[in-house]
Design a protein that fits this description.
Blueprint lengths: L2 E6 L12 H13 L2 E6 L2 E2 L7 H17 L5 E4 L2 E4 L3 H9 L11 E6 L5 H13 L3 E5 L5 H4 L3 H8 L3 E5 H4 L5 H12 L5 E3 L13 H10 L2 H16 L10
Helix pairs in contact: 9-10
The structure holds fe (ii) ion.
């Protein structure tokens, strides 16, 4: 089975992910050795973002060439992790103008919020994205205080048309017990739509998905695990419909 990772900070020097090209290629080797077949590179897009699309594209091309040179069985696609805050209208308008990358040039857009954001910003931001024709995928909802305070927000996020992506590290407790408990709730209730690595380095927050896939398969459901780690991310890459899991 191959894994498709839709959230990974593997491009060097653009954010707090890979620090150097050496780290990038080490991350790629680790991913391949754990059966990841495709990584969507998702550098942060913060309000004061330093890098434009051309900068990101040139790093992406350099890394893609290095992966081909090393004959690694790994495909790369491009996206960004788009930070939404009170200024969401200008971010959505920049997305409409094509100034930021959605996931593999599809309407699927990986978004993140400040952990302490107010839901009075979160929901209108999702509305604005949807109204502009984008399909939001909310990165790591289990890490947000507004979810810790009220698990019902998870259902509301879905009512607002968002898909939910859990970080693989959250599932086994890498971000603490509170985060793990929400990840468990999302898996038990079948609220999660994707698991991704959100890898930042070859040393901590690393790329492998395989062990967590096995864990989810064993503790929740084989079919659901395949859907989270493979079928749904593949649907995003192919710009096909992602369905919420209902069994
Ligand atoms: Fe991230």
């Amino acid at each position: 089975m191959l894994y498709y990772d839709i959230h990974c900070h593997i491009l060097p020097g653009l954010d707090d992910g890979a620090f150097s090209a050496d780290e990038t290629f080490r991350m790629a080797e680790i991913a391949v050795s754990h059966h990841t077949g495709v990584i969507v590179c998702t550098p942060h897009c913060l309000p004061n973002h330093l890098y434009n699309k051309e900068d990101i594209l040139s790093v992406f091309r350099m890394v893609s060439a290095g992966i081909a040179e090393r004959k690694l069985r790994l495909k790369l696609a491009l996206g960004q992790e788009i930070f939404l805050d009170q200024q969401f209208r200008s971010t959505v308008s920049a997305l409409e103008k094509g100034e930021h990358f959605t996931l593999n040039q599809t309407p699927y857009t990986l978004v993140e919020f400040d952990p302490y954001e107010d839901t009075r910003v979160v929901f209108p931001a999702l509305d604005a994205l949807r109204a502009a024709g984008f399909t939001p995928i909310v990165a790591h909802p289990e890490r947000y205080e507004f979810v810790w305070e009220d698990y019902g927000v998870l259902y509301q996020l879905k009512e607002y048309g968002a898909f939910l992506q859990i970080n693989k590290g959250s599932i086994k407790g890498a971000f603490g017990y509170d985060v793990q408990r929400i990840a468990d709730f999302m898996l038990e209730e079948r609220l999660a739509d994707f698991v991704a690595s959100d890898a930042h380095s070859p040393y901590r927050r690393t790329p492998p998905m395989q062990d967590v896939h096995e864990y989810v398969s064993l503790h929740y459901s084989h079919a659901y695990a395949d859907y989270l780690f493979s079928a749904n991310p593949l649907a995003v890459l192919r710009n096909q419909t992602v369905h919420s899991y209902n069994t």
